[in-house]
Amino acid sequence: MHPHGATGPLVAALDIGGTKIAGALVDAEGQLLTKALRPTPATEDGESVLRAVTDVLDELRAVPQWPATIAVGIGSAGPVDALHGTVSPVNVPGWREFPLVSRVSQAVGGLPVALTGDGVAMTAAEHWQGAARGYDNALCMVVSTGVGGGLVLGGALVPGPTGNAGHIGHISVDLDGDLCPCGSRGCVERIASGPNIARSALGGGWQPPAGVAATAAAVADAARAGDRVALAAFDRAAQALAAGIAATATLVEIQVAVVGGGVANAGPVLFDPLREHLSRYATLSFAAGVEVVPAKLGTDAGLVGAAAAAAESLRLEGFTSAP
């Protein structure tokens, strides 16, 4: 957060998820000048959810630096449809093909608005300011309640026609595996997301300590203490992630895979078996050298990335998402 006044153009960024809606003004160095936050009224109707978004925007518009804002970038839980400017986040039932871009544009007096999926936004952030900086070909992943991702190829962000490209969570890595809520079977997300790591551990007989919720973080603590069932749950998640990364490396040739999101906070409990499994799956010469590194930007990645993705898709003058 910069206390001083901004110089140069700003992008207003929105990071929209099932639990919170965050907003910030982002400068050309990727710094957040001001930040606003509202809980997502996820169980309410679409207009109520929109009201939380406009509340965040109103807070940003009240800041003295607002006049320097030249565009709005939105990173949203998906699926999104950047072609039609609509969002249908799985975890916000009130929004189905909701015309978010036009409504946000109205709320900010007609500034250009760019929409992308949250995985693509995180990727834009990590490429601009984080762990993928300096790489022309990268896969960036968010492993949390779900598993999302995005791609940088040939030095450019690849959002795809609708803003959902790189959605590694729904590559099938277990042909006859469990049915995924998306409708497919054996998806990476169905094995490697936080809730599914916890589900796997509980199924194997692990129990969290008294008074502790059964989360992936609790499973990680048990794994660090040597609990065999907890270690096996993380090993299986790591195997699924490795298979997805290897498939991506084989398909498009990446140099680095950046892994962020809450589950990545497990550290070596996740990354050690992930690198080991990847060496077994990514075996062709051009896929074998992929580095696996933790993300750098943490909770601000969505906001920084929404601005970076907007700068790239709108080709904003004086505001560049190139490192």
Spell out the key features of this protein:
323 residues; alpha/beta; Nucleotidyltransferase, domain 5; 2 domains; five-stranded mixed sheet; globular; ROK family protein
The CATH topology annotation of the largest domain reads as Nucleotidyltransferase, domain 5
Number of strands: 12
Strand content: 15-25%
Q: Name the CATH superfamily classification of the largest domain.
A: ATPase, nucleotide binding domain
**Domain count:** 2
Instruction: Please give the largest β-sheet.
Output: 5 strands, mixed
Which CATH architecture of the largest domain? Answer: 2-Layer Sandwich
Counting DSSP H or I runs of 4 or more residues, the number of helices is: 9
Helix-residue proportion = 25-40%
- Which structural class best describes the helix and strand composition? alpha/beta
CATH class of the largest domain: Alpha Beta
Average predicted local confidence, pLDDT: 94
Give start-end ranges of low-pLDDT stretches. none
Distance between the termini: 20 Å
Radius of gyration: 19 Å
Shape by Cα distribution: globular
Q: What order do the SSEs take from the amino end to the carboxyl end, as H and E? A: EEEHEEEHEHEEEHHHHEHEH
Question: Strand order within the widest sheet?
Answer: 3-2-1-4-7
Protein name: ROK family protein
InterPro entries: ATPase_NBD, ROK, ROK_cs
Pfam family, one: ROK
Organism: Actinacidiphila polyblastidii
